[in-house]
TrEMBL record:
Gene3D superfamilies given in the database record: NADH Oxidase (3.40.109.10)
Protein name (database record): Nitroreductase
Pfam families, sorted: Nitroreductase (PF00881)
UniProt GO MF annotations: oxidoreductase activity
Length: 173
């Protein structure tokens, strides 16, 4: 059920050496393509990476927080064309969030790797690193990569504590 998926989803950074079936990849992409988008423009493009040599090289797309890509069988690079829409960041983020939930629904683990505004291990931008490695054209900006695979770690659902409930206000702050 939907709320079980919402509750159990965690960022998974260890994966089994097991490929993600093509039908599941298609369903992840369907979830992304069905996400809402400002003015219905859908400025996003998704790049599915499953070649082990490329995934290995992608580890260096960031200084930190990307090492686990080397374990993963799949990464979906989420790009968008800023010239098409001023809500490209929001659109691409919502599509990514939809994919995290779709992954959970199919017993896959996933983790967002932030690319926009980050630096690669070599010192340039994470975006230009991926642009060169994956031949991403200049017209596309890169928001993030969603790294996906069958989980090799279990994580308990996060608690919604009193502290977190203080983030919610009613009528006025
Ligand atoms: C915008 C954004 C950027 C993130 N960037 C990274 C990242 O670069 N590397 C990483 O390991 N996790 C990244 N994460 C995952 C967060 O660390 C994770 O969602 C957070 O710690 C909460 O844990 P949970 O997803 O298990 O609930 C990112 C998540 C979001 C939403």
């Amino acid at each position: 059920m939907f709320f079980d998926i919402i509750r159990s989803r965690r960022s998974i950074r260890h994966y089994l050496a097991q490929p993600v079936e093509r039908e599941k990849v298609e369903q992840l992409l369907e979830a992304a393509l069905r996400a809402p988008s400002g003015k219905g423009i859908y400025p996003w493009e998704f790049l599915v990476v499953d070649q082990p040599e490329l995934l290995q090289k992608m580890v260096r797309c960031k200084k930190n927080g990307s090492n686990f890509i080397q374990e993963a069988p799949l990464a979906i690079v989420v790009c968008a064309d800023p010239a098409q829409s001023d809500t490209w960041i929001e659109d691409a983020a919502v599509a990514t969030a939809f994919m995290t939930l779709a992954a959970e629904a199919m017993d896959l683990g996933s983790c967002w790797v932030q690319i926009r505004g980050r630096e690669s291990a070599a010192g340039g931008s994470s975006e230009s690193f991926l642009r060169e490695l994956l031949n991403i054209p200049e017209r596309l900006a890169v928001l993030c990569c969603l790294v996906v695979g069958y989980p090799a770690e279990q994580k308990a659902p996060r608690e919604i504590t009193e502290h977190k409930l203080q983030k919610v206000h009613h009528d006025t702050v």
